[in-house]
Amino acid sequence: MSEADRRARVDALFDRALDLDEAAREGFLRSACDDASMQAEILELLRLVAQPSSILDPDRIVEGPLWRAIAAGSEGRAEPREGERVGPWRLVRELGRGGMGTVFLAERVEGRFQQRAALKLLHLGADSEEMLRRFERERQILASLGHAHIARLLDGGCTADGRPFLAMEYVEGRRIDRYCDEERLDVDARLALFVCVARALEHAHRNLVIHRDVKPSNIVVTGEGEVKLLDFGIAKLLSPSAADGDALTRTVVRVLTPEYASPEQVRGEPVTTASDVYQLGLLLYELLTGTRAQHVEGTSPQALERAVCEGSPGPPGTRRAPALSPFRGDLDTIVLHALRKEPARRYASVGDLIEDIERYRRGMPIRARADTWVYRSGRFAARHRAALLGTGIAAAVVAVALASWTGQRSRAGREAERAEQMERLLGELFLLPNPRRDATLPNARDYIARAVTLVQRDLGAHPVTRGRLLTDIGRNYAVLGAYPAAEEVLGQALSIREQHFGAESTEVADTLVWLGMAQHYRGRYPQAEASLRRGLRIQQQLLGDDHFKPTSTAIELGDLLHSRGQLAEAEALLRPVLARLQGRDGVAGLLFACRSYLANVLRDRGALGAAESLYVQAAADADVAPSVDHARLLVLKGDLAGAERVLVPELLRLRRVYAGDHPLTAQCLRHLGHLRMEQGRLEEAEASLAEAQAIFAQWLEAEHPMFARTRAAQAEVARRRGRTQDASRLAHEALDRFERLGLSEHPAALDACHTLGRVLLDLGRPAAEPLGRCQTVTRLEAARRQLLDYTRGRSVPVPFRAPAPNR
Amino acid sequence: MAADAARLTGATPMPPDAPGEITALLLRHHGGDQEAFHRLVTIVYERLRRIARRQLGRRRGATLDTIGLVHEAYMRLVGETGVAWQDRAHFFAIAARAMRRVVVDYARRRMAGKRGGGEPPLPFDDTRMAADRQTGEVLAVDEALDALASFNERMARVVECRFFAGLSDAETAEALGVSLRTVERDWTRSRAWLTKELGSTR
């Protein structure tokens, strides 16, 4: 009997035995089976019926990973071949294959001119529709990255079977690492080449584009020795933004080469320009040592995270490429500084990295410092907390510690008790987060909230300390942009201090000033004015007009009046303050604030020249970069390139400083929106304003004036894009908001009137209606602006007759 | 339905396989032509792979709707008109065989690639590792299934339908033209057999 026959027979008996109950089976098998082994085999099968292997679960395949891999991979798809058409391109020959796709040399077959391209056909099973949408969004930016050392993106689209492709400028040359070795470049020549790469990245960063995938295979050196960066922003095209969902953000790193991933990419955290700095560090390491800085053993996410987030390559000097002569330790410091695990501790920008390299090349001392032992030993513990210690929290630590110290000194009798109390409070405040208990890791705001609770619970009997701590905490909330919380806590502090010190005390005044500022930023202008004026009055009475404190408060009041659109009052208040401050020592901070605020007022009154000289003076004395307010002036003045030089780096800086979003980031985006509008880059203007609006919406309450201002700007963009209906709707919304807030005189309300007027004129209707919505002064101002527009030749002359003023 | 299918494919039409050819092959296979069966499986195999890729590619993390997959392949290859339901059921059985081949072929290439083949490094991800684990399993099941087919062809076909194509008992019964009870019975027995087989090879 053949094996198959034997099995068939076993199976037949097995089938019959299945119908029998346990007791009957044994007798049946004994009599039916040929031998004992057959009997045992059938018993074994009967036993296995009750416990089949989980491998055979019916859904295991169809819901399993293999099918998904088949779908996602390039498996079995017909690869396009040489000679075939892809969009307007004809494939000439294959240039190479990588993780992301296959690259072909291609020639354009449509169109009049001959053009060659490196055409990248993507493997990724990504949703091609989504991919194309993202591509459309990005291509304009990428295409505008005109730089000698950046390979241009030429085209993109989908093949007939739905595979996305990208066509980039074709660059003939060698990979940078091979070029360096084959040409036997010395250290300095390598550094020179590296600086070229870095400068190209710096240019991209100025245009808000991050490369995300800097590595030797993406950098080519041509026969003439010119560097070209390839695949700019491609990684971003292939990896959705954080807004597209958690599962998707985790895929960011998946398409990258693990050896060149930055720690934040591996952790799935937001990728900023700091990531490019890190990858430049990896590149420099490799150019100097001939080996990779990161080695990833194994394929698990854990292995990747270990290698990238914890591994350290050590100083490149110790592993110097054999062909190179020894280099100074400073170069080690530079590389390791760029390779720091925490983005905030690396070079703040590619420019800073370039500067240090150039200093090294000229034999000057570099700026980066080597890690201290304190840093190294503390790094493990710090790793989890570093992200939490934002702006406010550090101040809160100081506040608590300071209160503890002064408390101990002033009441020596109860020293021990108070010290103990403070220690416990601090301990509780900074308990390390427990991932099992806490759903999410606390951020700085959570810490402050905890501090409020603790202060109120533990310090009930100590009004002095309580008032002080709550004031400090309120200030921190304000700094972090949590204005309602700031107002609430400062309100508590105020009543504690009023009870303890009396209503007319400097302590009460201090808290009032902070409260007024929080109310100002919160958009509650009348309340803010009341608080600031009351604080100012107390300070003037108790300290005299000339004291530092009332001066500072007056300046803040001036800023508030500016926000309320009361420009004449603001100017009248700030001018004498400025006159008093000028020529004095030790008032740099006040002088800066006063000049900046006054400049804002003058700018919005149309005195652009006077405003600009104040901005310049303020920035020069304080040795700081021009402010976004100054940039607004540059936009008004028509110096768009100048405004761009201010706003773009500032936006990058804000995004870095406030790792999440912040009202200041939104403010900067709003100004950027105005700039883009004037540049005629209307889509970008719209995007910036929409982002500003979204951030404001997270932070500010519904009736904040900032929404009215943003709407006014959005209305104008919509008008310029020819979307008349939207423009009209947005302008009306802005005007309604300004009206509700009592801000119809505000310069931005004016802009909205202006937009609305232009919309109506475009529609051939009289523009009287929007002007009727404005106050008299505003009408005149609107007329003046239209005239200004006209004389500047920025827009079509509009027949315009100002209505007669009725007072 | 037809409109949906047209919308789904959008601007990327797939090359047509003449529906007439498929129908003819189905008829020939009906008449016992094994050659026709292999040709059918080959055609369906190509088609399924393309549809599956699109289905999964549309959205990350999507699971494969195998029934939808087979339906769509059927609609594309045979069309709705003029084919009796028996042929449609019949097509399912062929599709199941084809799906087995898709998975097993892929697993083989994967295995070859891991043993020092020249495949370029794949992007790094969880799917890849899970797929690596399943590769070995699938090849073992495939081998055990061949052994099963050597003494009971029908049981092997039931496993193809239930396991590789994800058909239900009822759909399998329809596809193979046997009773529901037979399918249940065969599935129970074949799993015991395969479990035994898998156990002995490890």
What secondary-structure arrangement, pairings included, does this model have?
The complex is a heterodimer of chains A (807) and B (202).
Chain A: H1 3-18, H2 22-32, H3 36-50, H4 65-72, E1 85-86, E2 89-97, E3 101-108, E4 116-122, H5 128-143, E5 153-158, E6 164-169, E7 173-175, H6 176-182, H7 187-206, E8 219-222, E9 227-229, H8 234-238, H9 246-249, H10 263-266, H11 273-289, H12 301-310, H13 329-338, H14 350-361, H15 373-385, H16 391-410, H17 415-429, H18 444-458, H19 463-480, H20 483-501, H21 506-522, H22 525-543, H23 548-563, H24 567-581, H25 588-605, H26 608-622, H27 628-637, H28 640-657, H29 663-679, H30 682-699, H31 705-720, H32 724-740, H33 747-762, H34 768-772, H35 776-792
Antiparallel strand pairs in A: 1-2, 2-3, 3-4, 4-6, 5-6, 7-8, 8-9
Chain B: H1 2-9, H2 19-30, H3 34-57, H4 66-77, H5 85-114, H6 126-151, H7 153-164, H8 169-176, H9 180-201
**What's the main sheet of chain B like?**
none
CATH-level-2 architecture of the largest domain in chain A: Orthogonal Bundle
Question: What is the helical fraction of chain B, as a range of percent?
Answer: over 70%
Proportion of strand residues of chain A = 5-15%
Strand content of chain B: under 5%
Distance between the termini of chain A: 119 Å
What is the largest interface, and how many residues per chain? A-B, 62 and 65 residues
Summarize the structure.
Chain A has 807 residues and is mainly alpha-helical. Chain A contains 35 helices and 9 strands. In chain A, strand 5 and strand 6 (164-169) form a beta hairpin.
Provide an overview of this structure:
By secondary structure, chain A is mainly alpha-helical. In chain A, 61% of the residues lie in helices and 6% in strands. In chain A, helix 19 packs antiparallel against helix 20 (483-501). Chain A is extended and about 115 Å long. Chain B has one domain (2-201). Chain B has helices at 2-9, 19-30, 34-57, 66-77, 85-114, 126-151, 153-164, 169-176, 180-201. Chain B starts with a helix and ends with a helix. The model of chain B is unreliable at 1-18 and 115-126 (pLDDT under 50). Classes of the chains: A mainly alpha (807), B mainly alpha (202). The interface between A and B is large, with 62 and 65 residues.
